[in-house]
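Archive entry. Fields below.
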Amino acid sequence: MKKIIITGANAGIGFSTAKILVEQGHHVILACRNLEKAQSVKQILDQIGTGQIDIIQLDLNSLDAVNHAAEQVLAQYTYIDVLINNAGLINTHLEATEDGYEKHFGVNYLGHFLWTLKLLPLLKQSQQGRIIHLSSIAHLAGRVQPQYFKAENIKHFQTFLYYANSKLANLLFSNELTRQLQGSSVTSNALHPGVVDSELYRHLPRYQYKVVSLALIPPERPAKRIVEMALASQWTHKNGQYESVQTPAIQSPKARNQHLAKSLYQDSITLIEKYLH
Ligand SMILES: NC(=O)c1ccc[n+]([C@@H]2O[C@H](COP(=O)([O-])OP(=O)(O)OC[C@H]3O[C@@H](n4cnc5c(N)ncnc54)[C@H](OP(=O)(O)O)[C@@H]3O)[C@@H](O)[C@H]2O)c1
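PREDICTED_STRUCTURE:
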């Protein structure tokens, strides 16, 4: 029985993943911003498996809230086997997180960056800790633009570009962690889950949704792959992999750029430093 924490487990891919894990009898911690929704998901999961299910309130829109949630996890558990960084959003207009960051950058990436670094000591307590990052094929169009991390500096907002940037940042973070964790018992891998029928596209204009919906696959497909990455023995020594469901797993040159990964990591550390002591 493994102890697995999933961010954004109350919908889409996160929920499907939690379902398989609970069916298999694992201890699943649902890290969700909406407690009411998480409670009803827990009720569903309670019916389908024997695994223990806990809920932690996690709002990635605020670094204070992320820090608070991570402190709770640190106080409550002595180890974690798998961390699945799944929560994410697509925002159709420019918005800022509580800390002033552009929302894709703040929620999809920076919140998870802080969350992961805070929980790393618990992963190191596992016999073999695994971190899985939900990136996206969209990272191919992404760029690292520190001058636009803060929403107030953005003059021309484009949903897809800022989403892509956040997904590139997820992948760069996974790759940088891989290098930093070499020789330790923890691995870091990432994946593109496919174009999935979930709530992610809920705010897209109808015509855009129509285009996306031509390629949709059910969330159970990536969920199965995530469970494999989380638990299968053939993944024990895999570190720094990028998987892709539905399309070939191609990392952009930027995603493979170690220098870029290091500099994004360093920039991100300065943004969250006060929470690390
Ligand atoms: N669907 C796709 O085609 C696709 C393709 C490539 C990559 N991905 C990636 O896969 C991951 C899962 O997406 P999905 O398709 O399953 O989307 P989804 O159905 O919209 O689920 C997203 C989850 O993230 C949570 N979330 C959003 N904002 C949050 C915040 N501020 N704090 C905490 N949790 C928050 C949501 O919580 P609420 O229920 O409270 O909103 C929800 O549980 C994302 O990282 C996404 O970028 C998806």
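CURATOR_NOTE: The two ends are 32 Å apart (CA to CA).
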